[in-house]
Amino acid sequence: MAKHFHLAPLLELSNLRLDQAARQLGQLINGERQAKERLELLVQYRNEYQALFLAAAEKGLDPQRWHNYRQFLAKIDEAIEQARTMTNTARQRTTAGQKHWLDQRGKAKAFDTLAQRFRARIAYEESRNQQKLMDEHAARFFGEAED
């Protein structure tokens, strides 16, 4: 009678959860990367716009244009702060996703270790049974040869 690993469904489930956690972590890492890129683009755009503002200011600006430049820079600064918040949130989610993935990997490894021990024990028992049969066969063979 072939023995089977009774925890095999849990091993399979833990491997499925590990795969799911890995996919989620990949998505979180990608989201964090995109948030960082957005922030970098906004900062770059702000620096370029501020350079334009300073160049225009050196040539002289009427109060309305001065106000428009300053107002637009303030809106860009607000967008940068929102992007920083989103980047920090994405980083926190990625960190949580990494922890979740590590937890799932630990569980999967634990079930895998149990499965390996089970297979090793079965192999050892089968080896012992095979040796026992060979010993019995040899004993009968030599027992008949002495008669």
Distance between the termini: 35 Å
- Helical percentage: over 70%
Compressed to H and E, one letter per element, the order equals: HH
Catalogue the unreliable spans: none
Give the integer mean of the pLDDT values: 92
Largest pleated sheet? none
Say what the CATH topology is: Helix Hairpins
Beta strand %: under 5%
Number of strands: 0
Helix-and-strand structural type: mainly alpha
Question: What is the topology?
Answer:
Blueprint: H1 8-59, H2 63-146
Helix pairs in contact: 1-2
Provide a descriptive summary of the structure in words.
This protein has 147 residues and is mainly alpha-helical. The model has no long low-confidence stretch (mean pLDDT 92). It is rod-shaped. Helix content is 93%, strand content 0%. The chain has one domain (8-146): Helix Hairpins (Orthogonal Bundle). The two termini are 35 Å apart.
